[in-house]
Design a protein that fits this description.
The complex is a heterotrimer of chains A (384), B (315) and C (52). Chain A is of the alpha/beta class and 384 residues long. Chain A is 32% helix and 18% strand. In chain A, strand 10 (286-293) and strand 11 (296-303) form a beta hairpin. Chain C is elongated, with a radius of gyration of 15 Å. Classes of the chains: A alpha/beta (384), B alpha/beta (315), C mainly alpha (52). The interface between A and B is large, with 45 and 41 residues.
Chain lengths: 384, 315, 52
């Protein structure tokens, strides 16, 4: 699949993200259709025949992604989902294989694959930042050297229909993080809500197939679509009130940032709950566990977090990141410095703002990023 | 309550000048509406960043565990009770502390407010009795009493029970409050209904353990859920494992929990796990006439034996 | 336990001296009868970890 990726058109304001765009293929001859609100249900029903559909649905107090039932509709009007879409491709707990210890069975102590449903699925209504995040995570699970079959199979089975975000939160800073409310990178289809319906624009062959399967066929020219989309895009981008400077991260010496005086203050309030990493679409770390019940066992992987002391605890009892401040520093150094240096493609963050909203003690990556961007300006009193 | 901050700064400054403390723990203004960030001032200059308002719901006693410095700490009623528990359990020494007591009128429930308005809250203006919230297309005002954190609404100890200095005159304590209505409601359900109630309550749990980590009581060096030899609990998202965590953690808080609400406040998915700790709190009250963290002079009930302890469960 | 949805009768606590053989027999009888009456426990049982 790596060979199949070819150079792509670089558009928009995010040319710096050229690297990331290389990771997936786009089509030049995009297809654009207009959907009347009345025809929405009909097309959705058609899609349900072909794909398993995942969408934001209001559950209790928040919006979460969920597989849609027969008669269920996506809730597209709400604020961003509480958890990101990461779990759709990379579940919090995922079975890798099973085994039996029952020696009377021929296959005892041999791993057997888990049957996972990789039939076509479509995610409808996730925000462009979450889609962009898949491409960042891909760096970890799909490298020239190592291929994670679980992630890759799930990702390839998925067609991503992103809803352009016309209602960003005050904590969103996607435009500073190389993404944007109308960003197409990572999407298969961009969906834009207009006054009387939606415009669907395919960005990849997968997206084209989805539009074909939906039966929505009221085609409009790309130029006409652009004319309608552009003002909405500008309006949405203007609503983004958070701007974070990241320009110096690359130039600054890693050890200068690492040894900067502000870490104790940044970390003081942190309770190491890892919430920030669980809600984050770009955090990819996991832990592997075996669970055996009687003779039957399953090996599974669970999300893990650099914020947990257990994450780095060695078998010897030694813990290289035994102190809270080391763990907090690690999270930010990884996202905002090591990743930046290693991949030369911006920060490991798409600016979705979830960690800012979910942290129980209000540790704010935007603030930390500014400190790291200008470590020489930071005094001990980093809390301001 | 809004006027407290000048007094807090004044006391803090005096403590630094007199060399009575090395640090002062309090709250800094948050970067979002209805959020403040716990902070530690190392000099009187840092005190300028401190604030006091209705968003200081995190329990600061949690930041004291095993610290060695001399500490000034800003404490509401519940924080002070957890400080008492900390002292009793040898997690901090009384003479290390200078407790700046804050008579409290209750903290704001940010989730209740977010739920009650039609969009994202971008600005909050707090006055003595009201909370005005603004967003892109709304501007609403609530009575403070209607949007208190659930634990604050039923709090019986708003004034600090232990302090070196109060920042203001004590507030009037609430009376005639039924603390355990929710617990009795669950108690009256059938076994199956109870099981389903907790299934539903805990279903969104992501096992981040923010509830545990925000709790001043949960200071064990290795929590039972993190043990690997033996491993008591599975680590995935299995609902039995999730329940095991919650049920057992609640037991570990029996006779110690002050219902400060830090756990519920911290949960990223808004789970009210306090119904579990409150059940045990109610039992401690009924069986031992015990409320946690009120005095340094008595040992907690699970720590002591009395011949007349209730024992009718032994057959 | 009762509060979380496990029947109270599944847990018995008794104080029996090593000299009280008959009491022991009686209690064991009571416990088994009580649990048989409730039937197999279905809550709080995990046979296989749930995973996606
Ligand atoms: S969510 Fe906040 S308190 Fe929890 S680990 Fe992350 S930064 Fe620390
Ligand atoms: S670090 Fe925070 S803002 Fe950035 S992608 Fe993760 S959750 Fe979103
Ligand atoms: S269990 Fe919850 S309410 Fe009780 S002391 Fe701990 S954080 Fe406070
Ligand atoms: S804070 Fe909430 S989500 Fe996290 S472990 Fe506790 S109940 Fe579960």
């Amino acid at each position: 699949m790596t060979d199949a990726r070819h150079a792509v058109r670089k558009t928009g304001r995010h040319q710096a993200k050229a690297n990331r765009q290389l990771l997936y293929k786009r089509v030049e001859s995009m297809k654009v259709v207009k959907i009347d609100k009345k025809k929405w249900d009909q097309g959705l029903a058609a899609l349900k025949g072909v794909y398993r559909i995942f969408s934001p649905v209001k559950m209790k107090d928040a919006f979460e992604f969920k597989a849609l039932e027969e008669n269920e509709n996506p809730d597209l009007g709400g604020l961003n989902t509480r958890l990101s879409a990461k779990g759709l491709i990379y579940p919090q707990t995922e079975a890798m294989f099973t085994y039996t210890l029952d020696e009377s069975r021929e296959d005892h102590h041999i791993m057997s694959p888990v049957e996972t449903d990789y039939s076509p699925r479509a995610v409808i209504g996730l925000r462009p930042c979450d889609a962009d995040a898949f491409l960042l995570v891909q760096r970890n699970f799909d490298t020239p050297q190592y291929k994670d079959p679980y992630w890759i199979d799930a990702y390839e089975a998925t067609t991503i229909v992103g809803l352009a975000c016309e209602n960003p939160c005050s904590t969103c800073f996607c435009t500073s993080a190389g993404s944007g409310p109308f960003n197409e990178t990572g999407l298969d289809v961009l969906m834009v809500e207009t006054k009387d319906g939606y415009i669907l624009k395919s960005v990849t062959p997968k997206g084209e197939s989805l539009i074909a399967a939906s039966g929505w066929n009221d085609e409009i020219s790309p130029e006409e679509a652009q004319k309608q989309i552009e003002p909405l895009k500008t309006a949405a981008e203007q609503k983004i009130s958070s701007v974070v400077e990241t320009d110096q991260l690359k130039n600054k010496d890693a050890m200068t940032i690492y040894n900067a005086p502000f870490w104790d203050d940044v970390a003081f309030a942190c309770i190491n709950c890892g919430t920030c990493t669980f809600v984050c679409p770009t955090c990819w770390c996991f832990d592997i566990q075996d669970e055996t019940h009687k003779t039957e066992g399953v090996r599974m992987r669970n999300w893990d977090s650099c914020m947990f002391p257990l994450f780095t605890l060695h078998g010897s009892g030694h813990n290289p990141r035994g102190e809270k401040v080391q763990r907090v520093r690690q999270r930010f150094m990884h996202k905002l410095k090591y990743y930046v240096d290693k991949y030369n493609d911006g920060i490991q963050c798409v600016g979705c703002g979830r960690c800012v909203r979910a942290c129980p003690v209000n540790i704010d990556i935007r603030k930390v990023c500014s400190l790291m961007n200008q470590p020489e300006n930071a005094t001990c009193a980093a809390q301001s | 309550m809004l006027g407290y901050i000048d007094k807090i700064r004044e006391i803090g400054e005096r403590l630094f000048t007199d060399g009575k403390v090395d640090v002062v723990i309090g709250f800094a203004k948050g970067s979002m509406p209805m959020m403040n960030e716990p902070m530690m001032a190392r000099s009187s200059g840092d005190l300028q960043k401190m604030v006091w308002d209705g968003n200081c719901g995190i329990n600061l006693a949690n930041y004291l565990t095993n610290r060695k410095e001399k500490i000034g700490i800003v404490a509401k009623g519940c924080d002070s009770r957890n400080i008492v528990t900390h002292i009793i359990e040898n997690k901090i020494k009384r003479d290390q502390l200078y407790i700046i007591g804050v008579p409290c009128k209750g903290m704001i429930d940010r989730r209740a407010i977010s739920k009650a308005v039609p969009g994202e809250v971008t600005e909050v203006i707090e006055t003595r009795d009201s909370i005005r919230v603004k967003g892109r297309d709304f501007d609403e005002t609530f009575d403070r009493g209607d949007v208190l954190q659930k634990n604050c609404a039923v709090c019986l100890h708003r004034n600090p029970v232990i302090y070196d200095e109060l920042v203001a005159d004590p507030v009037v304590e609430q009376t005639g409050i039924d603390r355990y209505e929710d617990v009795r409601k669950i108690d009256s359900l059938s076994t199956e209904e109870k099981w389903r109630f907790f299934d539903d309550l805990l279903s969104p749990c992501v096992r981040c353990y923010a509830c545990r980590n925000a709790c001043p009581l949960c200071y064990c060096p290795t929590c039972f859920v993190d043990e690997s030899k033996p491993q008591w609990v599975g680590k995935g998202i299995d609902d039995i494992d999730i329940k095991t965590f919650h049920f057992l953690r609640a037991y570990h808080c029996a006779g110690r929990c002050t219902d400060c609400g830090s756990c519920e406040r911290s949960c990223p998915v808004g789970i009210n796990m306090r119904v579990l700790t409150k059940k045990l709190e109610m039992d401690c009250k009924d069986l031992f006439d015990w409320e946690a963290g009120l005095t340094l002079d008595k040992r907690p009930p699970l720590d002591t034996y009395r011949p007349d302890d209730p024992n009718n469960f032994i057959k | 336990m009762d509060f979380m949805g496990i029947e109270r009768d599944r847990l018995h606590l008794s104080w029996i001296s090593s000299a009280e053989a008959t009491k022991f027999i009686d209690v064991v009888g009571e416990v088994t009868a009580a649990i048989k009456a409730l039937g197999p426990n279905t809550n709080f049982v995990k046979n296989k970890a749930k995973a996606a």
